[in-house]
Predict the 3D structure of the following.
Amino acid sequence: MNRIDDAMVEATMRGYDCNNLFAFVATVIGSDEAARLMEMYRVGTSKHWQGATVFWHISNDGEVRSGKIIITVR
């Protein structure tokens, strides 16, 4: 079964200052808690569109199989 390289996933786990979802969540629960949750659920930042979020699809065995890029409007 195909899997996405860990380095690719890790490369998205930053740039939260440019992530519209992070910006919204931070206004509700604060930046520190928003960052903790983004890391816990492995939600990343995509460069595909400005402000885009990538939701990684993780299998039951913990492997990242795919991801979905979503743009949220600020």
